[in-house]
What we know:
- The chain is mainly β.
- The protein has a single domain (about 5-25, about 45-115), classed as Bacteriophage SPP1 head-tail adaptor protein (Thrombin, subunit H, Beta Barrel), CATH 2.40.10.270.
- The protein is built from one helix and six strands; from the N terminus they run αββββββ.
- It has one helix at about 5-15; strands at about 15-25, 45-55, 70-75, 85-90, 90-105, 105-115.
- A six-stranded antiparallel beta barrel has the order 1-2-3-6-5-4.
- Strand 4 (about 85-90) and strand 5 (about 90-105) form a beta hairpin.
- The chain starts with a helix and ends with a strand.
Amino acid sequence: MTGIAERAALLLAREGETVxxxxxxxxxxxxxxxxxxxxxxATTVTGKGYPGQYRKSELDQTTVQSGDIRLTxxxxxxxxxxxxxxxVDGRTYRVMDVxxxxxxxxxxxYICQLRAN
Length: 117
């Protein structure tokens, strides 16, 4: 972890809350070609995050809707992806977008857009 990522993780550990990111497994076949492949199991990674709201000027009701959550998440491995699920405050949300904040080519934190399922 880079120095900045470590400082961000410390700040989020102190000020944030526990967040679980669930990564879905892959099917036993390629849905495009139908070819058999090795399935992967679903996994869950826990990290610290800080949920916040979007400003009204950011709500376009298409990409960002009222009720969406902006989650600042410490660097976790693997990186969250669209269609993962996130559990925050006991509620489950779908990850709509992930924007890594990077320095010198390395992820530092993630800004995730969450939408209630």
